[in-house]
Amino acid sequence: MATIAVDAMGGDKAPVPEVEGALKAAREFGHSVVLVGDSESVRRELEKQGYARDLPIEVVHASERITMDDHAAKAARGKKGSSMHLCARLVADGKADGFISAGNTGACMAIAKMILGKVPGVDRPALSGVFPTMKGTPVVVLDVGANVDCEPQMIAQFALMGEIYSRCVLKVTRPRVGLLSIGEEEHKGNALTRDSTPLLKDLGVEFIGNVEGRDLFSGLADVIVCDGFVGNVALKLSEGLVEMIRSMLRESLESSLAGKIGYALSRSAYADFKKRLDYSEIGGAPLLGVKGVCIICHGRSDGHAIKNAIRSAAEYASSNMNQRIEEELREFAQAG
Amino acid sequence: MATIAVDAMGGDKAPVPEVEGALKAAREFGHSVVLVGDSESVRRELEKQGYARDLPIEVVHASERITMDDHAAKAARGKKGSSMHLCARLVADGKADGFISAGNTGACMAIAKMILGKVPGVDRPALSGVFPTMKGTPVVVLDVGANVDCEPQMIAQFALMGEIYSRCVLKVTRPRVGLLSIGEEEHKGNALTRDSTPLLKDLGVEFIGNVEGRDLFSGLADVIVCDGFVGNVALKLSEGLVEMIRSMLRESLESSLAGKIGYALSRSAYADFKKRLDYSEIGGAPLLGVKGVCIICHGRSDGHAIKNAIRSAAEYASSNMNQRIEEELREFAQAG
What is the pTM of this model? Predict the structure, then answer.
């Protein structure tokens, strides 16, 4: 069983979902959890949620907290006593196998890179979205916001890291890797995609060429690589669109009596539908390429999402994938 | 009433939806329609769909057809007798006020630029998606695929053209213009968005700064500008996601008897929901910046979408907006 540090002061409703997720992960999976944050409020919340002393949960006090309004780089350099810093330190010192945070994404990436460092050979760690698809297996999309204005070499490294994550952590046998572009043909795209294509072909992964926006969630590819600007726009667009569709559907159903009855009758179908679309089933976005395990969760994560992020962090930690990244990048560099 | 040329050989099921849309537009709006394509099959389809001789519909024969598999630039240079070429010629010669096509988007853009030319002052015409939003008023997103690897000057021109379209054609009083980026703060984004911001501020439009992917359909902005690569990924992602959500919902509802009954009871709510999400209510994407009116429709457009595209083309043609683009670009160039 793994030990995962949880930033208890990260999310919008911290420490409530963090404590809930920690309790669930400890009970359901037997993982040890270190809750890092204001110890008084964390302990109070633990008592409130019925913490039993035999559960493998520990509390570590942090005197500072990074908020969503903090400037990422400044918070990383300045707030050294923050719960986020302490989480990363626990991993760097070998006291935890990984950490998760639902806090300020920019600050979390900066702190992870600063304290954990990079896997040898990695130029730029990549934030990697993991999403449900039509086919059932999740797709790994990277980068979704850590790096804008990428070079082809970075895209190739993203492909390698994403492929290893899909293979070693998500257990996909031979992950198909696609390049997000604006047409299936090789010549279609921008300067970055055209220059990345030859590198991706030489990578030794199952490269399936360009994929389009519509294929993001179709299950056509198991790993999709792109510049962090494009990936972040795509990620936030998807979130916004899912919310908009849900609220439009609810409005339409609520505007008539038949609709309301219909909705009541099909409640379990909606629950099933919601679950299939729900990113919280996966829990968070791993920051691939840092030495150690760091998973960044949505600020609005509930206890279920936190629990699943802890599970993902534990699976990631036990996979040895950082060592594989190092080895495969070395082979690629020697071959190139 | 306007005269609109319709490429009758464009869409995936041509000429069926084209003929249907032409008949509807002629009947409902009184617009004259010139159907351009293989005259024999167009006439046969007109008879089949109950064409009445008093309707203002004309057929012009085209000996060639551009398919979805044709290379855009080659088809534009080579297939001079195609229905797409002839449509553009009718506009250039003043015999039609605008044209629409549901055919090969790349070829259509190339032909429109070649035959119609550009509005003086426009560097690069932009394909402009028009989408429904949560608030009801449609949003204009440009560029969605005509120009990848944009310069800041191009983004500024897109903003000006989109703002004029929103104001003059969609009748939005003071359109708010947003720049698609990955954070609300000005410094967040990539090199292109950062360099475009000062130009957008000086444009004299209601520039509201950066908007994120989640705001695309929220109604926060009336016009959203971006590089054509990002815009095209966003457009296709949205299409794919809407389809995926619909099919997941259907599957969930069909998996139980209660769900099926619920679905049957709420049928009108679903019809309303579908209509609100339906791009075909708007009809097509105008190619802004060409001298004349060109609207490009989805290859899968049905008769309803074609009808609405004819209506949009007529509204565009009667708006004098190309003259405004020319004037406002001149003012901007003199001020800059």
Answer: 0.91
